[in-house]
Amino acid sequence: MSLNAEFVTALRRVTQRWRTLWDAELRGSGQTLGRSRALLILSQSGGSAMQRDLAEALSVEHPTLVRLLDGLERQGLIRREPVPGNARANRIVLTDAAAPVVQEVDGVSEGLRERVLHDIPRAELETALRVLNMVAARLEKLGTAPEGGQG
Amino acid sequence: MSLNAEFVTALRRVTQRWRTLWDAELRGSGQTLGRSRALLILSQSGGSAMQRDLAEALSVEHPTLVRLLDGLERQGLIRREPVPGNARANRIVLTDAAAPVVQEVDGVSEGLRERVLHDIPRAELETALRVLNMVAARLEKLGTAPEGGQG
DNA sequence: CGCGCTTATGTAGCTTGCTAATGTTAGCTT
DNA sequence: AAGCTAACATTAGCAAGCTACATAAGCGCG
């Protein structure tokens, strides 16, 4: 298998396993990876955000976010609030009940990162991150302008 | 955001975009990423494989593979054949009709890898791959023995 | 004012991950 | 031989990606 192919295979594998492990650790707390990511981003945004911005921060499409928010709303962890002066938009707000959940989810995600990555040499991790960012940029360019030339 | 957190974010983002782009390129050919991965692995295994081994090679659980195979069987691209001497197992065999599809899918995946990765310096890509493999190993260890000690 | 473009969100339906539970067959063990 | 356990496949049901379409509101232009 070529270096390129191995890279892609490893990428998928790591992402998938990470998701599975994260999901498993959250099972007891009623959360899932998708929802917990939304909670964390919301919390990092100061507790509220426009739905549109949230989708972008999570790197998911709007319909995906809608379902995550439906779930969180059902659990009483967020509210969709109308935005004064813009009847289309919603502001997503963390409720008080969300605080402990955010705390727990944050602990789990941080703990998992630490456990998995602690013995990877910083320099190599930085190189890997740089590569991933290059690849992400490349993918986004190809994704937005796929027709015509050969980039 | 910490280096660790950035790494995880980048990882997810790249994997997700890769999937989306791959899916988009295959849309015209009736294939999807999951099924096409199964086809490629099958082809690389000489055109047939035990279902169990296929799941492992794809890094997916059995039920996931079952559905992929259901789809491929419906499209007439594979057959499930009984294994002489082992009535539990299935041997998955590529049909003749699969050859051109495999060809196309292989071209798309190779082309995508090439387009996205061609300008990443080999040395950095190798480092990134090494990191990913370390992480994968770590995740698998944590996944199989999560209870008790702190690894 | 109304027509149409854009923006923001939501709905429908597909795919593909997963776990848990169900059968069925094979292989041991007693 | 009967019964337990392990292996292999499947089904059921949930989660979370996606695209395509729908709904509704703001904005601009004639």
UniProtKB/TrEMBL annotation, chains A, B:
Keywords: DNA-binding, Transcription, Transcription regulation. Pfam families: MarR_2. The keyword Transcription applies. Gene3D superfamilies: Winged helix-like DNA-binding domain superfamily/Winged helix DNA-binding domain. InterPro entries: HTH_MarR-typ, MarR/SlyA-like, WH-like_DNA-bd_sf, WH_DNA-bd_sf. It comes from the Bacteria. PANTHER family: TRANSCRIPTIONAL REGULATOR SLYA (PTHR33164:SF64), TRANSCRIPTIONAL REGULATOR, MARR FAMILY (PTHR33164). This is MarR family transcriptional regulator. It comes from Roseomonas populi. The lineage of its organism: Bacteria, Pseudomonadati, Pseudomonadota, Alphaproteobacteria, Acetobacterales.
